[in-house]
Design brief:
The protein is α/β, with parallel strands linked by helices and 316 residues long. It contains ten helices and 16 strands. Helices cover 37% and strands 21% of the residues. Helix 1 links the parallel strand 1 and strand 2. Helix 2 crosses helix 4. It binds nicotinamide-adenine-dinucleotide.
């Protein structure tokens, strides 16, 4: 299939490009490289450098494609609080430009990178897609706004769309050119930050008095290779003019201490940590109910925490 991958030079998008091309798909990448890395791309990919906000360029990138995997966007929660307009412009307006281009060219299939940030701080865990969405930051609000636009486009332009609400993504893939690494700047994710921690700059553990078995917070992680498998399965499931929303996570969750122990095992030395107070708005447990993913797209993760930590370490 001919697929446009937006954000294909970023962490997750570059894994998609690699896996799609290795399984015989023809890929075009559209990316402005604002947070991505050109050297993540295979040399043979069709690459168009520029922004989603440029309608002519978007139509050029879409020409000849049958489907879109839409990863491009801004995704730092803290930055979104400081620059909400930038997030609305790139994420929401940028996606609208993409949907308009798809409409112009009659392209009907899209898989979108949504986020668990759409839920905010749900009271019940595991979190099902039916949970109420009350995002607590502009980033989550933009993802929810895009999902709404996709529901509208399913009705008005007969789009077949799936939004995958990822929880925390980790891990990496080894290619013939070397490892594709997670290279966010700043890095806000626990696993890469735990791997970087040193005695001089220990990993902060926010609260050790949570109502969980080891008293630290529990979060849900998914290996990036499992995540791209979910994208491929979602793409194959795009047959009707509907918009489906599906959680993608491990379904069980891992505590901060489980992550700390996994990092210590992989590095063969005890990870330096320091206790810090709870952060405002942090729920004790955030775990995805992934039963809909299994039912609708026949997807289940196969890689666990050790593989996520090990691969992130090897790629760093
Ligand atoms: N990493 C995670 O744990 C996680 C969790 C939930 C959702 N997501 C979502 O997955 C997607 C990919 O995340 P990532 O971690 O790979 O982020 P990333 O920052 O590494 O990748 C985003 C890519 O989009 C590109 N981009 C940004 N603005 C653009 C624009 N205007 N035009 C064209 N390209 C543009 C960037 O250059 C970058 O290559 C994002 O939409 C993010 O919100 C990620």
């Amino acid at each position: 299939m001919k697929i446009l991958v937006t954000g294909g030079t970023g962490y997750i998008g570059s894994h998609a490009v690699e896996i799609l091309m290795n399984s015989g798909h023809e890929v075009t990448v559209l990316d402005d490289c604002s947070t991505g890395h050109l050297d993540s791309l295979p040399p043979t990919v069709r690459f168009i450098q520029g922004s989603l906000l440029d309608p002519d360029l978007v139509v050029r990138a879409l020409k000849g494609c049958e489907a879109v995997m839409h990863f491009a966007g801004k995704s730092l929660v803290g930055e979104s609080v400081k620059k909400p307009d930038l997030y609305r412009q790139v994420n929401v307006a940028g996606t609208k430009v993409l949907l308009d281009g798809m409409n112009t060219l009659g392209i009907k299939k899209i898989v979108f990178s949504s986020s668990a940030a759409t839920y905010g701080e749900p009271e019940k865990s595991p979190i099902s897609e039916k949970a109420q969405c009350v995002p607590t930051n502009p980033y989550g609000e933009t993802k929810l706004a895009i999902e709404r636009d996709l529901s509208t486009a399913a009705l008005t332009q007969h789009l077949a769309a799936i939004s995958l609400r990822y929880f925390n993504v980790a891990g990496a893939l080894k290619t013939q050119r070397g490892w594709l690494a997670e290279r966010h700047e700043p890095e806000t994710h626990l696993i890469p930050n735990a791997l970087r921690a040193t005695k001089e700059s220990p990993l902060r553990i926010f609260g050790r008095d949570w109502n969980t078995p080891d008293r630290t917070c529990i979060r849900d992680y998914v290996h990036v290779v499992d995540l791209i498998d979910a994208h491929v399965k979602a793409l194959n499931a795009l047959v009707d003019s509907k918009h489906h929303i599906i959680n993608i996570g491990s379904g069980t969750g891992y505590s901060v201490m489980q992550v700390v122990d996994a990092v210590s095992r992989v590095k063969n030395s005890e990870l330096a940590t320091v206790d810090a107070p709870r952060r405002a708005g942090d729920p004790a447990v955030l775990v995805a109910d992934i039963s809909k993913a299994e039912k609708l797209i026949n997807w289940k993760p196969v890689k666990g925490l050790d593989e996520m930590v090990e691969d992130t370490f090897k790629a760093s």
